[in-house]
Batch of 2 targets.
Target 1
Amino acid sequence: MTVIEQMGASAKKASRFLINAGSSKDDALLAIAKALRANSAEIIKANDIDIENGRNAGLTESLLDRLRLTAERIEGMAVGVEQVANLADPVGRVLDGRTLKNGLKIEKVTVPMGVIGIIYEARPNVTSDAAALCLKAGSAVILRGGKEAINSNKAIANTMRNALAEVGFPEDCIGLIEDTSRQSATELMQLTEYLNVLIPRGGAGLIKSVVNNAKVPVIETGVGNCHLFVDESADIEMAKNIIFNGKTSRPSVCNALETVLIHKNIAEKALPEIKAELDKKNVEIRGCSVVKAILGDCVVEAVEEDFANEFLDYILAVKVVDDIDSALEHIAKYSTGHSECIVTSDYANAEKFTTSVDSAAVYVNASTRFTDGGEFGLGAEIGISTQKLHARGPMGLNELTSSKFIIKGNGQIR
Amino acid sequence: MTVIEQMGASAKKASRFLINAGSSKDDALLAIAKALRANSAEIIKANDIDIENGRNAGLTESLLDRLRLTAERIEGMAVGVEQVANLADPVGRVLDGRTLKNGLKIEKVTVPMGVIGIIYEARPNVTSDAAALCLKAGSAVILRGGKEAINSNKAIANTMRNALAEVGFPEDCIGLIEDTSRQSATELMQLTEYLNVLIPRGGAGLIKSVVNNAKVPVIETGVGNCHLFVDESADIEMAKNIIFNGKTSRPSVCNALETVLIHKNIAEKALPEIKAELDKKNVEIRGCSVVKAILGDCVVEAVEEDFANEFLDYILAVKVVDDIDSALEHIAKYSTGHSECIVTSDYANAEKFTTSVDSAAVYVNASTRFTDGGEFGLGAEIGISTQKLHARGPMGLNELTSSKFIIKGNGQIR
C-alpha cells in the first residue's frame, strides 16, 4: 500500500464512524475552531516559512497575499468553522417517501458521501473551510493543497486532527497529503477504491488536469467565461451599471464578466456610455470590427481567443450581434456554463434567454457577480459546479451529501 | 473530426432544439412507437441476421434469447415508449426558490442534461427504452450497443430517427454508433466536449472498463453483491421466504441475493430450514466452516472469492457471524453498495442496520429483489446507480435531468 492508499483506507474507516456521529459533529467543529485560535501563533510561524519560500521563488505580491495568514485571518477561519457548526445537519433529511400497495414503506434519505477529496491551490484558508464543510456533511476528507502553502496546511491540519482526537473523533476524518508532487495529485485522482468524489478548486489548468486524469467521480468547479447580452430593449443606464459591476468589482473571480454582446440597434447609443463607465477603471476593450467602428481606435481588435478565454483581469471582450438568436449562438459556442445575463425590458426575450442558455446561473437584469453560495442563501459554499451531474452552480452542504433508500417491510417478497 | 466527434457535435446541436421542445417531445415519442410497430417485420428481419451470427459465434441459448426480437417483443417496446410519453415531464420542475433581501428572485429549475451516452450489451430493447427516456428528459442520446445486436440496433435506431424527422425533430436527437469496436466505446467515454454524462448498462467488466477509461462524467450502474443478515431475533419462516425469493426468483439480475450472514445464536435452528427451502431449486450453498459443521458435506467450503463475487446463478454464499457488528463489518468489506437486508424483530438492530449500511437500498424484512424503478414507483428506469454522486439506486426520469438557477432582478449589482 502506498501512503495515499493508506490514507484512503484510514479515511474510509473514519467515514464509517461519521455515519453515526450525529450532532457530535458540531462539538468537533467547535473544538476545531477553538484549537485554531489557540494555535494561531504556531500556524503563523509555519506560514512565515511558506511566505519566505514563496518570496524566494518569485511569487507575485497578489499570490503572496492569498498565501499569507495573520491573526485576523486565522480568527476568520475559526469563525467560519463555527458558522458551519451552526448550520442545519444536511444528513438524515427525508427527501421523498411513500407506502407501496404491498405495504412496503420507502424513504429516500440523505446520507454522507463517504470520503471526499479536495485538490486546491495556494490558499491555506481552504484547508479549514473545506474540512469543516466535509465534516459537517458526515464525510471524511483528504486534502491535497498546493506546495506553496504546505507548511501552513500541515500546521492547520495537525491542529484540526488533534482537536478531533480530543473530542473522541478519529483523527483520520481529516487527512492532508504532505507530498505535493504532481504524482500525489494524480494518485488521489485515481483512488477509486476509497474516494467517493473529488472536488478540484482552482484555475482552468487544475480542472483540466483532473478531468483528464481522474478515475473517481469528479465535480468540476469554477471556470467562468461569463457573458452579458444587452438586448435592443435594454435600459442603457442599467446595462452600464451591471456591466461595470460585473467586470470591475472583482475581476479575478469566476463570476466576473468577460464578454458583452450588444444588439446592433442599440450599440451606437449604448457603447459610448458603457465605455465611459469602464474607463473609470481603465478597462481594456477588445471589440469586434463594429465596436471598433463605433468607439474608435481606443478599442483593441478582438481575436477569436478573446471570446474563448477568461481574462480574470480589467479586460472585456465586446461584440455587436444581429439579434438575440445570434447572442444565444455565441453563448452556446463560447460559454463555460457558469453565469450569463440578459439586460432587457422585453418579456419574451427574458423568457427565451433564461430557457435557452445552458448555464448554471442565468440572470435577467442583475450582475453575474451574485453567483455565490452565500449570496444565494445556501450558507457556506464548497465551490461552484460548472458540470451538470449531481450539483450545478453554488454548492452548499446539501450538495456534499448523497442519498439512500430505506425500505421497511414485514416479510414482503417479489 | 472523427465519426464519433461528428455524432457528438450533431447530438449537441439537437440537444439545443430539445431544450425548447416542451410537450412536443410526447408527440415524437408516440410517432416512434407507431413507427416501431409499422417496421416490426423489417426489424425482425435484421434481428434474424444477428441471431444467425450469434448462433454461428456460439452464443449460449440464454444470450440468444436476450438478443431475440419477436412481434410480441417489439409490441412491448412500442408500449414502453408510449408509457414514457405518458409520464410527467421531468424538465421545468421548480426544485427550490426564494426572494433575497435585495429583491433578486432565485429559482432552481430542472433542465435537460444535454447529451447522454449509453453503452450497453446485447439487448436490442435497450435501444428504444433508453432513447425514449433520454428524449423525454429533453436530452439527445448517443447509443453504443453490443456488436451481437448491431443489425437489430441499426434497424431500431433508423426507425426512430425517421419517426423524429416526420414530426419535425432533428434526427440526431437519437444517434447510434455503428462501429462496435472496443475503440469506438473508448472514444465515446472520452468525448468530453460533447457528452454531459455516460451511463453504462451491463456487467462488471463493462462497468470497470468505463471507470478506467472514461473522462466524461459517469453514472455507474448495476453490480450487486447483495447481502441478507439473519439477526438473532429473526422470524425464521420470514427469513427463509425472503432468502428463497432473493436468490431464486431471478438469479441473473443485480438485485438477486448473493450472500446470507446469520447470527451464531440462531444458525443451528435456522440453517436447516433455509437449506431445505433452497433445495427446492437446487441452490448450491458455499458456506464457512461453521455452516459446514451444521449442514454437513452437502455444503461447499466457501473461499474468500465466494464472498466477493456476484454469482448471478443458483449459488449462495453463507456465513455464520458473532453479532450484528460482525455482519456490518462483512458487508462494509464485500458489498458493492447495491441492496442489503436485515431480517430482525429487534427495533434497535433494524435502526442500526439501516443507518450503518452504506448501500443504495437498505431493507428491513423484505426481499432485495424490490430494488427496481418500477417497484419503487419511479416510473420507467434507466438503470440502478451504485455510486453516490448525482443518483443512487433506481434512476427514473428525474435522475436524467440537471438543474440551473434562474435569477430575475431589476438592476441589482453586488
Target 2
Amino acid sequence: MSIITIERKVLEKNDELASQNREVFQHHGAFVLNVVSSPGSGKTSILERTLERLKNKLRIAVIEGDVQTDFDAQRIAAFGVPVVQIITNGGCHLDAKLVHDALGNLDLNGIQLLIIENVGNLVCPANYDLGEHTKVVLASTTEGDDKPLKYPTMFRNASVLIVNKIDLLPYVRCDIAELKNNARRINPSLMIFETSCTKQEGIDRWCTWLEEQVHNHSSGNTGKII
Amino acid sequence: MSIITIERKVLEKNDELASQNREVFQHHGAFVLNVVSSPGSGKTSILERTLERLKNKLRIAVIEGDVQTDFDAQRIAAFGVPVVQIITNGGCHLDAKLVHDALGNLDLNGIQLLIIENVGNLVCPANYDLGEHTKVVLASTTEGDDKPLKYPTMFRNASVLIVNKIDLLPYVRCDIAELKNNARRINPSLMIFETSCTKQEGIDRWCTWLEEQVHNHSSGNTGKII
C-alpha cells in the first residue's frame, strides 16, 4: 500500500515537471515527440530515415535515452543535428526530470522539432509524461501481432503507432491486419503508419505527416496536435 | 536518495523471499528456469518447442508472467502441462513474492522442471531473483547485435543466452558473431544456444542440455548447475 502511494507521488511529481517541460517547449515553439518501443524495434533506424528526409527542411534536435552506451547518439550525431545523451545507468525509462536536466545542454532556440528517443521498454515508459506533444510507439512485425493487447498501457497512451519492419512480413508469423485491429481495440484513435527502414517503405508518408504537424504547431494551430 | 533506499529495501526483501522460494524448489527437487527477454523475442515459442520435446521425458510445470492477457498461458496449457498465470496488471517484472503466491496454486510434488516465463522486458526483471537456478535470456536476431552492450545487467545476470530467430539472419542487419562477442564481453561465462522456432533449428541441442541439467539437479549433482 505504501509502495502504491510512493508510486503515485512519483508520478504526480513527474506530471508537474512534464508540464514545466511542455511550457518550455511551447515557449520555443518546438514540437516534441516521445518515441517508445521494445528494444530493437527500430526507433533509432526510424530517426535516421526521418533525419535524412527532414533535416534540411526543419531544424531538428534529438534527446537519446539509453540504459547504457551512446551508440544511438553517435548514429544520430552523424546527421549533424544537435543530440543530447541521457544514460539512465540501469533506469528503465526516461522521466520529466531527466529530460528537464538534458534541456540544460540543448539550445532550443529555433528548434522546430525535438525528438526524444526513450529507453527500449514497452512497459515502464508508458506512464511517464515527458512534456511531449505526441507519444509515438513502434511495434515491429517480428514481435508478433498480439503486443497491443499484452502491453496495453503503452498503446493506450500513444497517439501514433508505427508498424516497422514490414519487409519481414513474409518470414514471420504476424498478421498485420490483426496487429492493427488489436492496436485499435486498445486505442481507436491511433494514427497508424507502416514502415520498413531497410526497404525505405512508408517513410515518406510518415515524414510528410510529421512535417505537417510541425508546421501546424509552429503556426499556432495547436488544435491539430494529437 | 530516499528512493534509492526504498529500492534497496525492496530488492533486499525480494532476495529474502527468493531464498525461500529456492528452498521450496530444492525441497521438491525441481530445477527452475527464469526466462527473460524483450517482448516478442520468442520466449513462449521456445517454451512450446521445448515442451514438444521434453513433456514426455520430464514432469514439467510453467509459471507464465504477463502484464495483461492469458494468451501465453493458453498456448502452454495446450501441451497438457500444469500452468499458473501471473498477471502483473501493468507491473514490469515478476518478483519473488508473486512467484511465491503462484506456488500456492501449483503442486510441485514430482515436478522436475519448472519454467518461469517473465514479463517481456529487457531491463526491470534483471535485478529480481525469483529463486530460480538458472536465468535464461533470449535475444532475437531482429533486435540487432548491440543489445548485450545496451542492456548489460540482464546479460550479466543470466547464465544462458538463446539467440533466437536465426532463420531471419539473411533479412536483418545482425552479425551473429558480433552479437555473441558483445554478450561475452558482458558475461564471459554465458552458455550460448542459437535457435529458430519456426525452422526448428538448434532446439534439440538446447533441449538436450536442459534435460541434462534437470537430471544432474535431481541426482543431487548441484555443483553442475549454473
